[in-house]
Amino acid sequence: MTIRLPAATALVVDDDEGIRQMLAAVLSREGLAVATAADGVEAVAAFAAQRPAVVLMDIRMPRMTGLQALAEIRKLDRSTAVILMTAFAEVGTAVQAIRDGAFDYVIKPFDIAEILLLVGRALQMRTMRDDIATLHRELSSSYRTDRILTASPRMTELLQTIAKVAKSNATVLVTGESGTGKELVAAAIHYNSPRNAGPFVKVNCAAVPEGLLESEFFGHEKGAFTGAQARRRGRFEQAEHGTLFLDEIGDISPGLQVKLLRVLQEREFERVGGTDLVRTDVRVIVATNRNLEEMVRQGLFRQDLYFRLNVVTLRTVPLRDRPEDVRLLASHFLQRFAAENGIEVGGIDEQAMERLLAYRWPGNIRELSNAMERAVVMSTGAMIVAEDLPEQIAGRPGEDEEAVGATDARPIAGGGSLREQVSRFEARVVAEALARNDGNRMRTAQELGISRRSLLYKLQEYGIS
């Protein structure tokens, strides 16, 4: 295994000189600059001076324990990955340390391959954060928007179409499911268009009471209705020389559909309660999650207005059809909400990311954003774990054990409740797999299709040594 990260530094902390020298030699061969320390006090001083990318540290040391040193290191820099080395009997302590900010832990005596795997993951996470930041800057430069992040070919194609459409003055219909970023598409069109110096005005047609929507669009004259104490400019006037974005266009009434059609055709309108014609120079972009063609067939939406709006149609891509973006967007939202809430979170652990990738996201990007905000707020450690995610994403407690029990119909001795029988069966499966792999935990975890950490939890739970 080769780890190559230019200018990366590792700090090895252990009161056993032999372990320090061995780990320093191994990591040096992998291209890392390695510093060492004999206890927690030296570790904190070395960390303050060199700010390494990753720290390998024993828990039980004189003068200052690894847990105490971890707390001091977190005060200096909460983003550095700290991997703890511990005896099997101290696994519970190490698990709590992860909640307190450690990146992971390894049990002594450890496999060198296991150490390299953990260090590689820690450095890979740092590289991923840098890559996300770079991609963020590139997309912002290309599309002048810092809010559309994607690695999906379908979304990349949509962004390329946006760049072409933006140059024109054509009316655009944006369709797609709720939460897929239709407003972001409209904003990208505006800010890439010749009208980008003008205003970008938004109206959610479903959020305005039907009786007030005409006034919202076109404004009103003084005395036009009860409460109209002065002339008011509508959104068409406010968007002059810019772009007007009408979201949920399928919710407007038939009467307002007629007036909107006239504005699009004639480029003029009257304010509510007025007779003077008001000329308008506005580009209109509309959006809906409803099927306007079906509404036309049902007589709920004017066909002539539909054709007038449907000059160019763009369809947003649901998140379930762009799985490449789940990891990217989850990391983006993690950084955003961590900064907004003043919470230091280093990343998303493997199990939590597996849950995010397996979920179907009926609420699309909006649901992912909400899920990551909750995860940041609920997190107690350096990493987002599955338990921090909403229940419908994280899954029910115990579902893994139930799935294992369903795969084997052999009778299980001892009787008892279903849960007790499943637990005994799982303990037997884990013990047999461990024996087949001569006690090698990494190979056992791979055979069982679970993470190394999950295997260690099960070994401790069932008392398997």
From TrEMBL:
Q: Which UniProt keywords apply?
A: Activator, ATP-binding, Cytoplasm, DNA-binding, Nucleotide-binding, Phosphoprotein, Transcription, Transcription regulation, Two-component regulatory system
Q: Does the keyword Nucleotide-binding apply?
A: yes
Start and end residues of each Sigma-54 factor interaction domain: 148-377
Is Zinc-finger among this UniProt entry's keywords?
no
Which GO terms label this protein's molecular function in UniProt?
ATP binding; sequence-specific DNA binding
Major subcellular site: cytoplasm
Name this polypeptide is given: Transcriptional regulator
Domain of life, per UniProt, equals Bacteria
Response regulatory domain boundaries: 9-123
In the record, 4-aspartylphosphate modifications are located at: D58
Localization, per the record, is: Cytoplasm
Gene source species: Azospirillum thiophilum
Q: Which InterPro entries match?
A: AAA+_ATPase, AAA_lid_NorR, CheY-like_superfamily, Homeodomain-like_sf, HTH_Fis, P-loop_NTPase, Sig_transdc_resp-reg_receiver, Sigma_54_int
Per the UniProt entry, what is one GO biological process?
Answer: regulation of DNA-templated transcription
State one Pfam family annotation: HTH_8
Cellular compartments per GO CC: cytoplasm
